[in-house]
Description:
Elements: H1 2-18, E1 25-26, E2 29-30, H2 33-75
Amino acid sequence: MLAFGGVFVVASIGMRMKNEEWLRRAGPFEISEGTLGQAKGETAFWRQAAHSSEAETDRLQDRLRQTEELIGNLKRP
């Protein structure tokens, strides 16, 4: 019975996370809607920053590949 309860709790938490229903209260502790909204905004900011960094990394890798090709061409007799 205890194992079934544990599986239910884990599955329930997984489904709520999938539906973006975040835990707002645990016992006497509760998070306000404003704080939750701020956290979501920060998540969106960092996600965008990661995508921007990825695009910049791709661009720099392409330039490095082109530079290596040019150097290789200059070394040929």
